[in-house]
Amino acid sequence: MTTSYDVIIVGGGVIGSSIAFHLAKKKRKVLLVEKDRIGCEASSAAAGMLGAQAEITEAGPLYDMAQTSRSLFPAISEELKECSGIDIHLVRKGLLKVARSEDEGNELKRLISFYQKQGQRAEWLSIEELIEKEPNLSRDLAGAMYLPDDGHVLAPELTFAFARAASILGVCLREYTTTTGVIIQNDRIIGIETNVGNFYSDTVVVTSGVWSGMLLQQTGLHLPLYPVKGECFSLLYSASPITATVISEGCYIVPKQRGRLIVGATMAEGQYDKKVTLKGIRDLLTISETILPNIVEGEWEKAWAGLRPQTPDGLPYMGKHPEIEGLFIAAGHFRNGILLSPITGRWMTELIEGERQEETLQPFRVDRYSKTLITR
Ligand code: FAD
Ligand code: GLY
Predict the structure, then answer these.
(1) Is ligand 2 within 6 A of the CB of residue 337?
(2) What span, in angstroms and rounded, lies between the C-alpha atoms of 252 and 262?
(3) Could you tell me which Pfam families the record lists for this protein (predicted)?
(4) Which residues does residue 247 pair with via DSSP β-bridges, in sequence order?
(5) CATH number at residue 64
(6) Which ligand has an atom closest to residue 229 CA?
C-alpha cells in the first residue's frame, strides 16, 4: 500500500473535494481521507443556493470572495461534467427575497441600492410584478427584491463531481478512514495517523468541516468552530409551482429538476445531532405556506439535517498553520460552502503551490484567535 503523497487532505466534503480536484490539475499526488462517505455531512445537506448577494448583505472580504466564486460556476460546471460525467445542474433563474410587510420591503429596497452601488444587478418588484413573474406566490406579500444573478446547483452532485473528477485525475480517495492525529517532527508536518495506519506527506490540508478544530487541538491552535444544525425537507410536484428560488425570513424554497422543491432550513446552534424534528418541519412549513400557499399540495419526498461549520466572525478559515510548516486549513464556510467551494479550491491550491502570498488571505487567517493559543 502506498503511504507517501505530495499532499494529504483530511475531510471529503465539498471543500476538501474541491481542493483535491484543483491540486490534481497541478499533477500533484494527492490522498483524500474521509471518515465516512464522500459528501456525507453538510455538503450533501445543503440546498445548493449560490446566494452571493442574497446571503451576504454587506461589503467586505466575504462579499468579494462570494461574487468571484459565483462567477466561476458556469465554467466549473462544464469542466466537471466533461471530466467526471456528473451534471451539477447549474440553474441561473435568479432569486426572489420576498417582503411580508412594508418594513421588510423598505429594508430590501435599502439592500437593492447597496447592491446597485456595488455594481450588481438587483431590482424591486411590486406585488403585481411579483405575481406576474411567479403566479403561485401569495398575494398577501408586500413585493420582493429580485436578484437575477444568484442561482443554484445540486449540492451533493457538486461534491461528488469534484471528488470523482479528482479521482479520475489520479487522486486516491479513501473512505471510512478516520484521521486521529497529525504527525509532527521539529515543527513540521510529516503525515497523519488514521484508524487504518499512518500516511505520510510534508503537506496536509485539514478540511474536516465543523470537526476541524478538534483535530487541530493537538497542534496548540485554537480554531473555534460551532455546529449550526439545519433541517430541510423536499416535496415533489408534477410541475414546479415556482421558477426562481424564493427566500423569506426563516425559510427558503429552491426549485430543483423535475418538479422537486427543497424547503430549508432551520438554525439550531450548538447541536451536533442530525435528528429531524417535527418542530423544525412545522416551522418551515408554516412560513413557506404563507409565501406559497399551494406548497401543501406537494408529495412528501424526504427530510434531512446537516451541520453548518460556523466561526465566531462568520468568515471561513483559509491559510497556513502559524507554527507547523506544511499544515494548511480550509474550514468554517458556514452557510455558503457550496457557493465558496470553487474559489476555495483555487486559492488553497495556489497557496500550497507557492503561487499565492499568504497576505492575500489575511481576513481568513487561521490564527486570528491566536491570543488563546495554548501550549502544545
Ligand atoms: P463537510 O461537508 O461537513 O465536510 C467535512 C468532512 O470531513 C465530512 O465529510 C466529515 O465526515 C469529514 N471528517 C471530519 N472529521 C474527520 C476526520 N477526523 N477524518 C476524516 N474525515 C473527517 N451552502 C451554500 O453555499 N448554499 C446553500 O444553499 C447551503 N445550504 C445549506 C443548508 C443546510 C441545511 C446546511 C446544513 C448547510 C448549507 N450550506 C449551504 C452550507 C454548506 O453545506 C457548508 O458550508 C459546506 O458543506 C461545508 O463544507 P465542508 O467540506 O467544509 O464540510
Ligand atoms: N445557505 C443556506 C443555509 O445555510 O441554510
Answers:
(1) no
(2) 8
(3) DAO (PF01266)
(4) 97, 252
(5) 3.50.50.60
(6) 1
Predicted confidence at residue 126, as pLDDT, reads 98
The predicted-structure confidence for 130-176, as pLDDT tens digits, reads as follows: 999 999 999 999 999 999 999 999 999 999 999 999 999 999 999 99
Q: Domain ends where: 293, 310, 327?
A: 310
- Please report which ligand is nearest the Cα atom of 154: 1
In the three-class reduction of DSSP (H, G, I as helix; E, B as strand; rest coil), residue 3 is classed as: coil
What domain range is 18 assigned to?
Answer: 7-78+155-223+313-364
- Same domain for 48 and 96, yes or no, is no
Please tell me whether residues 138 and 256 are part of one structural domain: yes
| Whether residue 321 has its Cβ less than 6 Å from ligand 2 | no
What is the distance in A from the centroid of ligand 1 to the CA of 212?
Answer: 11
Encode pLDDT of 227-272 as tens digits: 999 999 999 999 999 999 999 999 999 999 999 999 999 999 998 9
Q: Which residue has the cell 486570528?
A: 368
Q: How many CB atoms lie within 10 A of CB 133?
A: 16
- Chain-centroid distance of CA 343 in Å reads 11
Amino acid 370: pLDDT: 78
Give residue 4 CA to ligand 2 midpoint distance, Å.
37
Asked whether residue 369 is domain-assigned, the answer is no
pTM over 0.85: yes
Q: What is the CATH number of the domain that holds 301?
A: 3.30.9.10
Q: Are the C-beta atoms of residues 216 and 207 closer than 8 Å to each other?
A: no
Torsion, Cα of 15, 19, 21, 24 (10° steps): -160
Q: Are residues 286 and 233 in the same domain?
A: yes
Triad 254, 255, 259: Cα angle to 5°: 145
Instruction: Please indicate whether residue 152, judged by its CB atom, sits closer than 6 Å to ligand 2.
Output: no
